Amino acid sequence: MNFYIMTLFPDMVMQGLNTSIIGRAAEKGLLTIKAVNIRDYTINKHKKVDDYPYGGGAGMVMQAGPVCDAYESIAAECKKRPRVVYMTPQGHTFNQSMAEEFAKEEELVILCGHYEGIDERALELIVTDYVSIGDYVLTGGELPAMVVI
């Protein structure tokens, strides 16, 4: 199985997943994990990925462009357009049956949000599943992504 984690903090994810059982499985070639830095797909010279919500509203959201471009770079590596799991407190609570369903995928993309979330236009274009790991809010989707993997 191939995991792609779309994140603003690739080092955080990779350091956590390259240890213990998951790290040993990756070393044996049983799975691969690639952290894709969304900032690499921004056209802003300061690597800025946040902006005001399209149509107004409070807070800042991750821009649609870099998120969609990062996904397209992943999709280009895959045999078919991969399933995208967006980690959000508003999603369906992660459970064993969901884990079993995800495990059947050859490739799985996990999208980690920050700020007030991700521009809705990007979510409508690429996200197939909205998943939560519990009824609480974290600073981002990286820890939930590691839980799912």
Description of the molecule:
- Helix content is 35%, strand content 25%.
- The chain is α/β, with parallel strands linked by helices and 149 residues long.
- It has a five-stranded parallel beta sheet, sandwiched between helices. Strands 3-4 form a two-stranded antiparallel sheet.
- The longest helix has 14 residues, at 64-77.
Structure at a glance:
This protein starts with a strand and ends with a helix.
Q: What would you call the shape?
A: globular
Judged by helices, strands and strand pairing, the structural class is alpha/beta
> What is the averaged pLDDT score?
94
Q: What's the helix-strand series?
A: EHHEEEHEHEHEH
Largest sheet: 5 strands, parallel
Q: Which strand-content bin applies to the residues?
A: 15-25%
- Helix tally? 6
Q: Flag low-confidence runs.
A: none
Helix content: 25-40%
Give the beta-strand count: 7
